[in-house]
Every structure is written in C-alpha cells, then in structure tokens.
Amino acid sequence: MIISRTPYRISFFGGGTDYPDWYLKNGGKVLSTTFDKYCYISLRNLPQFFSHKYRIVYSQIESINSYDEINHPSVREILRYFDLPNGLEIHHDGDLPARSGLGSSSSFTVGLLNAIYAFQGLRISNYELACLAINMEQNIIKEPVGSQDQIAAAYGGFNKINFQKDGDFSVNRQIYDQNRISDLNKNLMLFFSGQSRYSSDVSSKKIENIKEGKNIGYLSEIESMVDESISILGNKNKPLNSFGELLNEAWKCKKQFTGAVSNSLIDSIYKRAIEAGALGGKLLGAGGGGFIIFYVETHNQNKVKEMLRDLMHVPFKFDNKGSDIVLYQPEGFE
C-alpha cells in the first residue's frame, strides 16, 4: 500500500495571473503558502478475485472494470495515462471539504500522481510533479484552472511563484525572520463560509474577461501586490498590519475583476469581520464560496469569532512540506 499526503494552499496575492491566458502574454506571479491540512490518497493492488478491476472511494464509491467507466475525471485520466496492468483500489480522505477555495482538486491530482509514481517504485521531482499535474488538469481533463495550485501542492512552503511567457515557472521560497512569519500566522483567521462551489464556473468568467481584455487593469494591480506584500514581510521596520490592509485592497480588486467572485452572503461575512476588527481578508480560490481568510490582530480575534459565530473557524499553521509519501509498503498479487 502507498499513502500520499498533499497539503492545501492559501493564496494571498496574484491569483488570476496564473491563468495561461494571462501569463503567456504578460507573465504572472503569486504569493501563497501551504498549511497543515491535507489530502490523503491511499493506493493498493486490488486482489484479482473481485468482480471489478477498480474501486475508487471518495465522496462516492465506484467499482468498475475499465478506465472509461470511471466518473471521477482526475482518476480516470491519470489511470488512462499510466495504463497500469493490474487492478487498483484508491481511497481519498481530506481534512477539509472539497470545492472550498484551498486548491483541493489540484492537491488530489498531485497526490494521486505522486502515489502512482511511488507505487511503481519511482521518484519524481517537485518540478516534474507540478508540470504533470498542470498538464493533466489543463490539457487532458480540460478544466478551466490556473497553474498555482498544482505547484503549491507539489512544492509546499511559503513561495513566490513566477510564471513566464514561455509557459515555464520558477518557485522562490520566501525566507523571513521566524518571529515575523509566526506573528503573521497568529494574525490570520480562516473561516468556512458554509458554501461549497464549483470553481470552474467563476474561473470560466475570469478567463473570458482576460480574453476580452475586460477589467484586466485590476488583475495587473493584484499582480503588483505580490512584490509589495513581500516587501512588507521582509522589512521588520514596516508594520505587519500593512499586510492585512493590502489583503483588503486585493479583495476589492478581485471583486472588480468579475462580479462572480462574491455574493450577498460573502459580502455580509466580510462586512461583519471588518466591523469586529479585521483589517482585511479575502475569499480563497476562484470565488463564490468556500473558505475566507482574515487578518486580525490577536486582541481582536475573540470579537471576530463572536461576530462570525455562525461559521466554522479553522485554526492552522503554515507548513513547508509539499506532497509526500507517508507510507510505502509494496505488495502484490500473483
């Protein structure tokens, strides 16, 4: 049996510039981190005495005999890509709900790819893993997704990711004073809005705006905030609260880029948090629902929790490790 553990991510600034329709013309950059909530994929040989060849367990259970019968698009296309000769059983477990803005779909894809490589006794670099996941989601499954989530899941850590016009990317690990990064972590609060959504609906609208050149000035402004936020974190003489205020500006830009990002529920949550003392925040992922993060000084956090008592608060810690094999126990059946 093989078990992979792949982190979820929080994207702070630059989201939207990781769509190929944008960065192949303009370049792009994002600042993101992974944190201590994970997607687990277990993979084992399925004994031949079962009547089915594949058993896929996630929010559904699929027991089928060919790739074409698999409903889960990532599982279907990844198994087709590798074309392994024997039957397989695949289980997915996640610490947080899917379709919630934390890059969970890409964490699943990265984790399954990593598990299958380990299952074959092979190792794959972070770069190769990210590239394969991007190709799988964008070109094979043809999902309207960006490229940051796959990279964050594969590499892990607090990173500036640069996207180049030639389609390549680079990952620059951000090294800060530990006390400062610890203070940042303490001042961030993560809440679940209670709404899950399919990001493809919002992503498609964003991609349409990029192709039509609509509201793209806001996207350029969001991109410029990446370096501004790095400057704040890297300079101990700059107040850390500026990071929270910049999140507020990024959220305003994100909403202006496409109205599909927010809705009345999200606007209400955001307004209540600001009234209780949050300096800024943003809805994570493409938009429309899922998790929302706020920058709140520690002395105001109880006020924010009370104001948002109808929502689930999820404490977290930054995590520097990307997709990893946490159990490697080869087995087989004749």
Structure in words:
It contains 11 helices and 13 strands. It is of the alpha+beta class. The chain has 2 domains: 2-175 and 320-328, Ribosomal Protein S5, domain 2 (2-Layer Sandwich); 178-318, GHMP kinase, C-terminal domain (Alpha-Beta Plaits). Strands 1, 2, 3, 4, 5, 6, 7, 12 and 13 form a 9-stranded mixed β-sheet that branches. A 4-stranded antiparallel β-sheet has the order 9-10-8-11. Strand 9 (280-283) and strand 10 (291-295) form a beta hairpin. It is globular and about 60 Å long. The two termini are 16 Å apart.
List the helices and strands and how they pair.
Blueprint (H helix, E strand, L loop, with lengths): L1 E12 L6 H7 L1 E18 L8 E4 L3 E4 L8 H10 L5 E7 L9 H16 L6 H15 L7 H8 L2 E6 L5 E5 L4 H9 L1 E5 L6 H14 L3 H19 L6 H17 L6 H12 L4 E4 L7 E5 L5 H7 L4 E2 L4 E2 L4 E5 L6
Parallel strand pairs: 3-5
Antiparallel strand pairs: 1-2, 1-13, 2-5, 2-6, 2-12, 3-4, 6-7, 8-10, 8-11, 9-10
Helix pairs in contact: 2-3, 3-4, 3-5, 4-5, 8-9
Descriptive key words:
alpha+beta, 13 strands, globular, 9-stranded mixed beta sheet, about 325 residues, single chain, Ribosomal Protein S5, domain 2, 4-stranded antiparallel beta sheet, Alpha-Beta Plaits
